[in-house]
Amino acid sequence: MARTSQYDIIVIGAGHNGLTAAAYLGGAGLRTLVLERRDIVGGCCVTEEIAPGCRASTTSYIASMLRPEVIRDLGLASHGMRMVPCDPALQVPFPDGQVIPWWADRNRTQAELRKISARDSNTFARVDDQLKKLARYLQPFFLEPPPEFEADGLQGWWKLLRVGRRFRGITSGEIAQLISFLTGSLGEFLDRNYESEKVKTLFLANNVYGKHGGPYDPGTALGLLFHLLSGGEHELQGFYGHVIGGMGAITQALAAAARKRGVEIRTSAPVARIDVR
Q: What is the C-alpha to C-alpha distance for residues 187 and 63, in angstroms, rounded to an integer?
């Protein structure tokens, strides 16, 4: 094995996050090594053979918030990654046989909701506009380190000023709404705004997964904004995409982009310990 002094950076884990970081580090001229325990790259973003001749995404199954900047910066399309929109993004079946789809076209979704509740159909459009506007205030923060609110000196004040400028034009009502989404629960939000349990279930199906909590846990309302961050190469709010070739096509493209930037990737290379000196 080569001496570790030959590398500036060692990334542990060849999942989508590790490969993305490695590709950027390699592109910045740093000698970068990626170590992966499994015999394939991808982490939770893989396509594997689950039966003879049948390959499928075995963990993550849909691409929704893959940043357009990452797609462009790393040239993922040139490495074979291709996504097509999911439409509908999801469908919720009910015991009575009714199925409610969530279409990319808001008017189509409203038409489906109108069959259940005219009030909820109208509320859906109002809430959609509200959420999309608030999500735009948060979006820039997902591509930079979190602000240091206890920073001292002119540099610290300048960083805080930059944060404040991101919220230029926000109203006091929107500030209250944003705080409510950051701290409140999804269940309470749905109870305040919608009357039909079926409509609430549609929102739950689209937002409560991956939260490691119930719909009435504090902070779960943030999912409503989080899933409206722009994604995909065309930078669409609320984008959900199927990846041609399964989710592993994303990490295969990331690995190819990293190698093109001089990154070395080793599979079947578990890390026994990390020495901090």
A: 25
